[in-house]
Design goal:
Blueprint (H helix, E strand, L loop, with lengths): L1 H13 L11 H35 L3 H22 L3 E4 L2 E4 L1 H14 L1 H7 L3 H11 L4 H14 L10
Antiparallel strand pairs: 1-2
Helix pairs in contact: 3-4, 3-5, 3-6, 4-6
Length: about 160
């Protein structure tokens, strides 16, 4: 083993790297293949960046959409509840009416409360107002009143079993 290392060292000292011929293949293929080489390198870089982003998302459990969805849902529930508590919601049988100005004010609050979620989902105050209206029947006081109104309109099939 020592003999092989000594032989390799002697050969390395005897052969002068300056005497070796340098072959430049860049001039032969450079201009014709350069766009293809650039495309392959850019594709590889994009793939590596995408792979690193995927690894980061899986490793750190980053999920922005879920956070925005939760923020939007919480906002809508709170606004619907506050409209009911403020008396801006009126029930006439099974029909729910909402004070337009109170609803508009509640929807405009989204611009300052959850602006990132609005921009992420592409929502405007008019759409938020519609979504708040959809959450109003889910409020406990309203849902119970609606159940009573349904029972009054259709006594043959009560919504709650008899006690």
């Amino acid at each position: 083993m020592k003999a092989i290392l000594i032989a390799l060292l002697c050969v390395a000292l005897i052969v002068n790297p300056a005497d070796a011929a340098i072959i430049d293949i860049g001039a032969a293929f450079g201009s014709a293949l350069q766009p293809y080489i650039d495309a392959v390198v850019n594709g590889a870089i994009a793939a590596i960046i995408g792979w690193l982003a995927w690894i980061a998302k899986n490793r750190f459990n980053v999920d922005i959409e879920v956070g925005y969805r939760d923020a939007l849902t919480t906002f809508l529930q709170r606004q619907a509840s506050s409209l009911v508590a403020a008396g801006a919601v009126k029930l006439q049988g099974v029909k729910v009416e909402v004070n337009n100005q109170a609803l508009a004010d509640a929807a405009k609050m989204a611009l300052t409360s959850i602006p990132q979620a609005l921009s992420y989902f592409g929502l405007n105050p008019a759409k938020v107002a519609e979504m708040i209206i959809d959450y109003i029947p889910k409020q406990p006081a309203i849902s119970e009143a609606l159940a009573v109104a349904v029972d009054v309109q259709n006594p043959s099939t009560p919504s709650k079993p008899a006690a």
